[in-house]
Specification:
heterodimer; A: 172 residues; alpha+beta; five-stranded antiparallel sheet; 22% helix; B: 226 residues; mainly alpha; 12% strand
Chain lengths: 172, 226
């Protein structure tokens, strides 16, 4: 054993170097994986009306969004129907995504940055296609998994509600 | 003077058999009778007996006193080294450059022994590096902000590490008016609602801008996206 120690001592720097290299490779791989990993999200389009009616059962799968309609002033809406299927998003930093709305407008979303507390700084805009006028320009600090709602535009005898959820967690 | 007939000496093999006690009992007595007349063979037997005794004594000494024997050998070697060192130093030849295998005359493709040794060392090193990378990747996992593992509050008094709801940083309703408010979700977290009123401010932002020119109290909501 004693006779082998000098040989081990000679090889120690090489092994330390190999572990350092391995650590750097692992760090770069995981970091790049994170940098490239898109932020999952959904855009849910609903039409709500104050007339008595049903609540779309599909909304029960999005409890955080449905809960908003149980509190004032949104509890005035008696019927809520989803328009089509939710649009799945795979957002990347500083890359805008557009979602066609049923009223012909476009919702443009962009994650500008991920804040140190884990929230997203999101910019959103509503635009009429072919025009340079916009209806809304918005910058929101969004908690992952918690929706924000853009609403108020009339549609199909009701009011259009657009729910946006980014960085979804289970059950959001 | 009568001369006794000379006894025929036994072969060495027979003598050795007698010495080892391998002769048959019936042969022993006649053989010993013959030996009385063979002084040379008796001398041989005496010598063989002496050698055997010495071997036994030496073997016993080696077993019983191996440590002292080893020390003796070491001290003897040390003594010899001291005595012979000056002679060895004086006899040491001057350093000479030995020709390596790569420069052997007539060897067109010499084996790169030195490089092969280096490669044989770096292959395990590289393997360890890759193993370390894989291990660390599994241990560390994807690098994400810790707060990504967001969980809604479970009850009153629980402290959250991030805001309990989305917040508006900027809101510009362009050609509309609007308002921003919160509603609570099922666990008391805020849900941000941006309400766009149906009332359009003006269809032509340029006309609106001209009309409001000089009006210092009223800010224009008209913004044109470039």
């Amino acid at each position: 054993m004693i006779a082998r120690l000098p040989r081990l001592a000679r090889q120690l720097p090489a092994f330390m170097l190999s572990w350092l290299m391995g650590g750097l490779i692992a760090a770069s791989l995981t970091h790049s994986a994170y940098a490239q990993e898109p932020i999952a999200g959904r855009v849910i389009i609903m039409v709500a009306s104050e007339k008595p009616g049903r609540v779309d059962p599909r909304l029960s799968a999005i409890p955080s969004l449905l809960a908003a309609f149980k509190k004032a002033p949104l509890n005035a809406y008696q019927s809520i129907e989803m328009e089509g299927q939710p649009t799945a998003l795979r957002m990347r930093l500083k890359k805008a995504e557009e979602v066609e709305l049923p009223n012909g407008r476009k919702l443009r979303l962009e994650v500008e940055k991920i804040n140190t507390d884990g929230t997203f700084l999101v910019s959103a805009s509503l635009q009429r296609p072919g025009q340079n006028k916009y209806t809304l320009l918005l910058r929101v600090t969004e908690v992952p998994g918690k929706p924000f709602i853009v609403a108020g535009q009339p549609y199909k005898g009701g009011t259009l509600f657009i729910g946006v959820i980014l960085g979804e967690t289970k059950g959001s | 003077m009568t001369q006794q007939p000379r006894e025929t000496p036994p072969s060495d093999e027979t003598l050795q058999h007698y010495f080892d006690g391998l002769l048959a009992e019936a042969e022993v007595e006649p053989f010993e009778e013959r030996l009385k007349h063979l002084p040379a063979e008796r001398a041989k037997l005496d010598a063989m007996a002496q050698i055997r005794e010495q071997l036994r004594a030496a073997a016993a000494a080696e077993v019983l006193d191996a440590e002292s024997l080893f020390r003796g050998i070491q001290s003897r070697l040390a003594k010899d080294a001291k005595e012979t060192q000056p002679e060895m130093l004086s006899a040491t030849p001057p350093l000479a450059l030995l020709q390596g295998g790569a420069e052997r005359v007539g060897d067109e493709h010499p084996a790169p022994k030195a490089k092969a040794k280096i490669y044989s060392m770096w292959w395990p090193v590289a393997g360890m590096g890759v193993a370390a990378a894989v291990l660390l990747s599994f241990l560390v996992g994807p690098l994400r902000p810790a707060t990504w593992s967001y969980a809604p509050s479970q009850g009153e008094g629980e402290q959250l590490t991030m805001p309990i709801g989305s917040e508006v940083m900027e809101a510009d309703f362009g050609d509309r008016t609007g308002t921003v408010f919160d509603v609570e979700d099922e666990v008391g977290d805020r849900i941000l609602v941006v309400w766009i009123d149906d009332n359009e401010v003006d269809e032509d932002p340029q006309e609106q801008a001209v009309e409001e020119l000089g009006d210092e109290e009223e800010d224009s909501d008209e913004v044109v996206v470039q």
